[in-house]
Amino acid sequence: MSIQIVAPIALLVLNNKRSITASAVYGTQLFFGLNDGSLMVYDIKDDYGLNQVSKTPNDHSSKKVDRNVAGTDIFEDYDFSQGSNFYKFKKEVNKIVDKPIDQLEILPDMNFLVILSNGLVSIFKLDDFTLEEKLVKFKHANLVKSYSNIIENGLDTNLDESYIYENSDEDYSDTVSLAAVNSEFNLNNHTTKEEVKINDYRSYLCIAFKRKLMVYSFVKNEFNSKIEYNLNDKVKNLSFLSTELLLIVTIDNNFYLLNLYEEDERFIKKLPFFTTSVVNSTSFSYFNKSNSVKISLLKTLPHINIISKESVGLKINDNGEYINYNHGRKKAISMKNFNRKNPLLWLKKPDIIKYWFPYLVLSYGNEILEIRNLENGNLIQSIAIRSNIKDFVLIEGNYLIIITDDGKIHSFSQVTYDSQLDQFEKINKIDEAISLVEKLPSKLFKREFDEDLTEKDEKFLKLREYQIRYAEILFHNKKYEQAMYLFISFMAPPDIVISLFPPIVKGISSNNDDNDNDDSNNNNNNDALLINLEDINIFNENDAFGDMTLPSPISGRYSPTTAETSTVSENNGKKIVERQKLIESVRSLIPYLADARRKLSKLLSPDSSKFEWKGITISKRLYIPLKHQHEHQHESEQDQDQNQNIDKTLLKLAEQVDTVLFRCYLISSPGLIGPLLRVNNYCDISTVEKNLTRNQMYKELIDFYHGKNLHEKSLKLLKRLSSEQNNGNVFEGPIATVQYLQKLNNNDIGLIFEYIQWPIEVDYNYGKEIFINDSIESESLDKFRVLEFLENLKNISNELNKLDLIETYLEHIIDELNDQTTKFHTKLAELYLKHLELNKNDKEIWDKLEKFLQISNYYDFTKILKLIDGKQNYLIMKTSVLSKLSRHDEVFNILIYECGEYDMALNYCLKFYEKPEQNEKLGNKLLSLLLSKYLDPLPSVDNAKEDLYFNKALEILSSPSGLCLDFLELLTKLSNAKRKIPISQISNFLKLNLNQLTKELNRSIINGNSLKLSNTKLKLTRSLTKNESIIITETSKCSMCKKKLGYSVLSWFPDGTVVHYGCSKLYKQQFDDKNQ
Amino acid sequence: MSSGKKTFLKVIILGDSGVGKTSLMQQFVNGKFSHQYKATIGADFLTKELIIDDKNVTMQIWDTAGQERFQSLGVAFYRGADCCVLVYDVTNTKSFESVSSWRDEFLVQANIKDPENFPFVVIGNKIDVEENKRLISNKKATTLCSNLGSLPYFETSAKEAVNVEQAFDVVARNALQQEENEEYNEDYSDAINIHLENEPSSCAC
C-alpha cells in the first residue's frame, strides 16, 4: 500500500491556445506569464477552512484513483469539480511585454513584479501592473532572482526549536545534566532569528547577464545599493543561503559563494565540494561542462539547502558546507542521524525539484510527480499527470499547483497531517511519521481537553510515542544499538523496553507477560528464572563446556531437564552462542536502565520532581506511559488520587528497573551488584534474596539488607553463616555479626540486644565492641536500656566477666562521655563493691573504687555509705563518702581515733584550701576542728594516745599550716584545753605568730607614711598651679601678628605664650611642630 | 598507542557539596583559587594539556554539583570516563563518610565493566586548616582507601596549592592506563558491534 500525501482539488483549463511560459505566486495570487507576453492573474479562493484536505484519502482512492503497477497514483480521471470555484480569475494584462515571458519574480516589500522577457528585465507595480522601470542596461539577462528575508523569517515560524535541536551538532545540552536550568549550548541555535531582527528587513533583486551579476539591495522598503560582480562564466542558477550569502552556479558548473555584505568581488569564494575531495565518489564525476546540465538550488528547512544535479541531491548548510551526518567522532550524533542521508539519490534526473514543507517534490518530464522525504530522499508518493509537467508552484498553505503543457492547471493539496500520520502508521513506516512530526509546529498537537500539557509537551509526547515504536522495530530487526539509543533519548517507559528481553533478563517467565501487573507473580516460575553465576562465569571465560544449567535466553523457555541431561557437545556449542547473545543484549540494556533509574529517581525525589529534557520540562505525568495514565483516569477523576496513582506507578517502574538492572549485572558484571545494592535502590527484595543466595553472594546480600533496613534478616543470615564450616567462609564466628551491629543505632536497639547475645556468649568482650565504641551509632544507644540489658545478661560463663563488661561500660559513659546520671555513678560504685566481694584481692578494682568515691560527685552518697557502713576494710573509703556529705567530724573520728591516719587527717584539711570552690574559711574551720580533736580527745582515749594527740596538735601549731589559724581563737582554745600547755612547747608557734603580727604592723606603718607623703606632694602641685599667671600690659604684643593684645579674646598656651584667639590656630601649629 | 597520537582522557570529580571540587580543578588547570564559594550548577568541564612520559594528553576534567547527586546527570556525563576522583573535606566527617557511596553511585551510573580495576583517586582536601579543626585523620582515610581496594590517597589544599599537582599526576597516569586497557578491550564500549547498514562513509553512490 502506498501513501497518499496529496489529494486533487481543482482543475483549470485555459481556453485559448496560448501556453504558460512562466509562473509565480504571491500570497494567494497566482501569476502566469504567457508565450504572447501577456500576464494572467488568478486568485485562489481559500474557503476550505483548513488548507489541507480533511477527508481521508482512502475515501476516494478506492473509487477514483487508479494505481498503476508501479504504485503511481493516476489522477487524470479524478473529478476536480468540487473545487470549481477554486480559481478566481482576477485580471489579464494583455501583452504586458512584447515577447514571451521567460521568468516572473516578485519583490513584495517593494511592490515589484519583475518580468524577464527576451533578455530584458522590466519592473512593474505589483498592485496595478503599471510599468515602473525598464532596465534597458541588461540586454542579455538570462536570470532574475528576488529574495526577501521577511519571507524567510515567515517560513521559519512553521518550525519550532525542537526541530532545530535535532539538527544541532552538540548533544551535551540535554544529556549531561537534567538540572532544571537551560544549558548554554541550546542558546547557540537561536541566533539566526536574532540576526534577522538586527539586520532589519532586506530584500534583493539579482539579475544575471553575460558574465556578470547585478545585485540590487533594498533595506526597509528603500533602495539601498546596487553592486555589479564579475564572474568567470555566465550564471546558470543562484540561491540565497541566507541574507548574507548567495550561492551561484555558473554555466561551467562551478559553484561560488558570494557574501553580499562585502562589496568586493574578492569575497567570491569558489566552493570545492563538487570538484575536489569532499564528494569524491563517482556520482559527481560526470558533472561535465555541459551547459545542458540542469542544477537546481533550493532552500528547505533552516540550515538545509539542496543542490540537485542529475539524479543526486546534495545537502549543504547556510555556510555552503557539506552536511555530514556521520562523522564518526561522536557516536551519539551519527546515531541521532542514522535515518538521515546526504547526498540523496533520485531515480533519474528530475526536471524540477522544489521544497514543499515538509517534503521534496520532484517532477520528471514524463508526467510523473514524486513526493520524497527530505531527510533520506525516500519516495513517499508518486503521481502521474497525463500531460507533460511544465512547472509547478507552491502556495503558502500547502497547495500545489501543477501546470501542464496542454494548458491545464491542476491543483492539489496535502491531506491533513493526521491523515498522513495515520497512513504511515498503518503501513508501519514509523520513521516517516517521525520525520513528519519532527518538522510540524507544536500548535498542531495541542489537544483542547488537556490543559495541563502545553503544545510543546504534546508534540514531544507524539514524537516520543513514534520514536519508541520505531525503536521497537529496530530492536526486532536486531539493530540493538540504535534501538537503545532511541529508548534512552526518548525516555521509553521501562516496562516497554524490558518486555523486549528474554525472561531470564526481565525475571518474568513468558507466560506471565500479559498480566505482569499481577502482584502475586508466580513464585514457581520466578524460581526457574534464577541466574546461576557460575554458569555465566564459565561462559565468560570461554574455556569450559561443562554442564551449564542456564536457561535458553532466546527461546524464553526454561527447561531444566533438557539442560541438565544434555551433555552433548553440539548442544553446548549452541548454548555458548545463545549465552553470547544473552550477554550482548544485556549489555545493551544496562545503559538504558542506568539512565532510566536516574530519571525515575529525579522524578521521585521530593524536592524536585521535574527536569529539563530536550527543552521540555518532564514531569511525572509526562514520563508515565499513556496507557498507565488512562487506567488511572478511569479509576478516579480526582487529581489527588491521580497523583498518588502516578507515584505508585513510578515506584513500580523504579522497582522494575532496579530489579532488572540487578539481573543484568548478575549476568554480565557481578562486580557491580555490590555498588548497586549499597546505593539507594528499589530492587525487589525476593528476587535479590533468591539470586544472591543461590550464588552465595552473601556479602552483597547483607549490604542489600542493610540498605533496606532489613537488619533482622541480615543478622539471622549472619548467625547461620557463622556456624557453617567450609573453607574460606569469611562469615565464620561472631565478628561479622558484631561488625554489622556496630552499624546500627538506637532505632534498632532491640535487634542489637537480641543479636549481640550470642557473640557475648562466645566472648563477653564483643559486648564492649558494640556498647563501648567510639562511634555515633554506639553513642546514640539508650544508656538506661543498655545497662538494663547488660545487667540481665544470662549465659555469661563467669560472673566476674559480666561485672567487668558492665563496669567497663559505665566507666566509658562516665569517663569518656561525662555522664552525670546518679544511677550510673551509684551503679558503678555498687558494682565495684560487688566485684570486691567476689574477689577481695583485686587491687585494681580496689583502687578504682577508692578513686571513684573520692572524685565522683554524682553517686548516691547515703546509699553507698549504707553499703560500706560497718565494714572495717572500707573505713578509709567511708571517709570519702562522709566527706561528700560534709560529715567532717565523723571523718576525723575515723581518721584519728579508728585508723590513726594523722597525716591523712591533716591533708584532709589542707586539700580544702586547694579547691577553689571551697572557701578558706572551711579549711580554717576544719583545721580548727582537727586541733580540737587532738586537744580534747574522746574521754575513752587512754593517756598514751592523749600524749600522742597532744604532740600532733603541737606539730600542727609549729608547722606553717598553723599560721592559717585564727590566732585569738586559738589562744582561747589553748587556754580552754584540758591539758595545760607549757609555753616552751609552743614557743615556736607563738614566735612565728608574733613575728607575723609585727610584720603586719610594720607594713601598715610604712603604708601610712607613704600615703602622708603623697598627700603633701599633691598639696604642693595644687598651690603651684593656683599661682600660675601672666601679666598682660597695654604694650604686650601677640607673638604671631605682633599687634597689641589689647582687650581681644586671647589664647594662653602651656608655654606661657599669649596670642589673639584668631592667631591661636597658627600658633598651635607652630607649637605642635616644635614639640614634635 | 603511538606517542604521536593525542590521547584524550576524561576525568570525573565527585564528592559532597562544598568539599572543594571546583577549587581543586581550578587550582590544577588555572593555578587559581577563589575564596568565595559558588555552588556549581549542573556540570561543567575544563581541559588541560599534559605530557606524560612523552605522550601528549588532553585531560578533560568534569566537575559536578555535589548537591545534585547523580539523578541530575545524563548519559553523556559518564560516557567514556577514564578515572574518577573522589573528594572529601578533612574538616567534614559527613563528606568523608560519603566517599564510598559516591564510588558506588559512580560505578552503577557509569556502567563500569570491570569495577574492581577502575581507577579511583581519593583526595582529602582543605588540609590548610588548623590541626584542631581537622576531623579526619590520615590514618582513618588511608584505612578507608585500602578497604575500597587500595585506592591512591592524597591530602591536598586547593587554597595553598599543596599536593594538587601530585594528585592529578596520578589521576592522569591512572586514566591513561585505563584508556590504554580499554583500547585492547573492544567489548568495552560497544556491547554489540553493529555496522550501520546503508550508511556510506561520505557518499552513497
UniProtKB/TrEMBL annotation, chain A:
Record-linked Pfam families: CNH, Vps39_1, zf-Vps39_C
Places the protein is found: Endomembrane system
TM annotation in the entry: none
Domain CNH: start-end pairs: 17-398
Record PROSITE patterns: CHCR, CNH
Species of provenance: Pachysolen tannophilus NRRL Y-2460
UniProt key word Membrane: yes
Lipid bilayer topology: Peripheral membrane protein
Protein name (database record): CNH domain-containing protein
Keyword annotations of the record: Membrane
From TrEMBL, chain B:
InterPro entries for this protein: P-loop_NTPase, Small_GTP-bd, Small_GTPase
Gene Ontology biological process terms, A to Z: cytoplasm to vacuole targeting by the Cvt pathway; endocytosis; piecemeal microautophagy of the nucleus; regulation of protein-containing complex assembly; regulation of vacuole fusion, non-autophagic; retrograde transport, endosome to Golgi; vacuole inheritance
GO terms, molecular function: GTP binding; GTPase activity; protein-containing complex binding
KW NADP (keyword) present: no
Domain of life of the native organism: Eukaryota
Listed Gene3D superfamilies: P-loop containing nucleotide triphosphate hydrolases
One cellular component term from this protein's GO annotations in UniProt: vacuole-mitochondrion membrane contact site
Any Pfam family: Ras
Keywords assigned by UniProt, alphabetized: GTP-binding, Lipoprotein, Methylation, Nucleotide-binding, Prenylation
Entry's family note: Belongs to the small GTPase superfamily. Rab family.
The protein's name: GTP-binding protein YPT7
